[in-house]
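Run log, item B.
One chain of 153 residues. Sequence copied directly from the ordering sheet:
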Amino acid sequence: MDFKQLSDILKTGKSLVINNPILGNIFIDKGTIGKSGYGLLHIIEQRLVKNKLIENEIAALICLVKEALDSGILSNDKIKLPDKFGLEKNGVIAIIKKAADRKGKKFVLTGYAINEKKEESTEAIKTVIALYGCSPEFSDFRNQVGAIVSSLK
């Protein structure tokens, strides 16, 4: 996993482009908070408010969302929102939508969902923490998430 890429999004605000084999380029943006928020900030805010996750768990969850964007399977039947798509892997569904920019249409990460087998995503989060929790790259990303969590409180 490349935690540095995710950390750089939060540090610099520069988007990361994932080339998904099914949908093509998907942009991961730093995003915004609030009801119509999107991107990494929206995911952090929602997980903090709704699920009361701690920084380790939120950082691991975001890594799983990135994995779903990289190589997840299309799961539109689980996404009940118009013009949004889901890519699922390890019980985590990355939610994306088409957005217009100056160059035309593109896909943008807007949020995530958990499939009906919540144990699958819980185990995946624990696995990411167990495998990478002590690595400097994960620690740096977790610290970035922690700074955002602190500012939201």
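Observations after the first pass:
- The two ends are 29 Å apart (CA to CA).
- The first helix runs from residue 3 to 12.
Flagged for discussion on Thursday.
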